[in-house]
Amino acid sequence: MAKGGKGPKGKKITLNVAKNCIKITFDGKKRLDLSKMGITTFPKCILRLNEVDELDLSRNLIRKIPDSISKFQNLRWLDLHSNYIDKLPESIGQMTSLLFLNVSNNRLTTNGLPVELNQLKNIRTLNLGLNHLDSVPTTLGALKELHEVGLHDNLLSTIPGSISKLPKLKKLNIKRNPFPKSDESEMFFDSIKRLENLYLVDEKDLCTTCLQKCQQARDKLNKIKSMAPSTPRKAIFSNLVSPNSMAKDSQEDWRLSTASFS
Mind listing the pLDDT tens digit of every residue in the chain (262 residues)? Predict the structure, then answer.
C-alpha cells in the first residue's frame, strides 16, 4: 500500500504525555484519560501504566485494539466509544476485573465480537449501541452480573432469549433496530417486562394518534432498511459527524455509577 493510503498519523502519545494524563477520580481510582486527542493507533507506551483502574480512549480515530490490552489486569472501566473499531481482540476476555465496557459508536459487526466476552464474569454495564450488529451473541447470556445493556441503533431483528434470563438485568436499550412486528417477538418481550427501559407496548394499548405515529416511524425505518447498501450503513447516522460529534462532553456521564443508555 502506498504511504498516502495509510491515513493521518494522528497525535503521538509518549509515556510522559500519558503519565500527565492520569487523574484521580472522586472515588480515589487512577484514571488514564486520553480521550479527544486525535489518536489513530493504540499507544503501546501506555502498557507500562497498566496499574491504572480506568482507561479512556474515547472520541479518537483508533481502528484496532491490540491483544496486549489484556495487560491492564486491574482495569475496572474501559471506554472506547466513538472510534473506528470493527473488532475486539480475543484477549479482552482475560480482563476479568472489568465492570464497565463502552464500545458504542464504532464499526463493530457481530463477527467482531469474540466469544471470549463471556469470560467477563464481573461486568455490569455493556454498551454496544451505534454499531453494525445484525445479531447478538448468545454467549452474552453467560454474563450473570450484567445490570445494563445498550444495543440501540444497530441492525438487530431479534434478541436471544438468553439475554432475557440475565438475573440482574435492570436496563436494556434496544431502540432503533429493525425488529419485525411485535407479535413475532411477543414471547421475548413478555419475559422481560420487569426491565425499566423497553419502551414497548401492544398495538391494542395505543390510542389512534399514537398508533399512527408508530406506524409512520416503522414505515420510515423499513424504507431506510430497504435502501441500505450491503456494506455497513452510514447514512442512518449521518447526523453523527464521525467519529464523535454527538458524544457526551462530560466523561462523568459515562462512568459506571451513572451509565445509562437513553
Answer: 334 445 456 678 999 999 999 999 999 999 999 999 999 999 999 999 999 999 999 999 999 999 999 999 999 999 999 999 999 999 999 999 999 999 999 999 999 999 999 999 999 999 999 999 999 988 889 999 999 999 999 999 998 888 888 999 999 999 999 988 654 445 455 445 444 444 444 454 455 665 666 677 667 666 655 665 554 444 444 444 444 434 444 445 444 444 445 5
DSSP readout, 187-218?
HHHHTTTT-S------GGGS-HHHHHHHHHHH
- What is the C-alpha to C-alpha distance for residues 76 and 78, in angstroms, rounded to an integer? 7
Residue 128: phi and psi, rounded to 5, are -115, 15
Residue partners of 111: CB distance under 8 A and separation at least 6: 87
Which grid cell sits at 229?
Answer: 447498501
Cell readout for 151 is 444495543
> Cis (ω within 30 of 0) for the bond into 243?
yes
Q: Please name the residues in contact with 231: beta carbons below 8 A apart, sequence gap of 6 or more.
A: none
Q: How many CB atoms lie within 10 A of CB 147?
A: 16
Cell numbers standing for residue 38: 486525535
Which residue type is seen at 176? R
Burial of 83 (0-12, 13-18, 19+ CB in 10 A): buried
- The dihedral of CA 178, 244, 21, 258: what is its sign? negative
Residue with cell 464523535: 244
Q: What burial letters (b/e) apply to 34-48, b meaning 16+ CB within 10 Å? A: bbebebbbbbeebbe
C-alpha cell at 20: 500527565
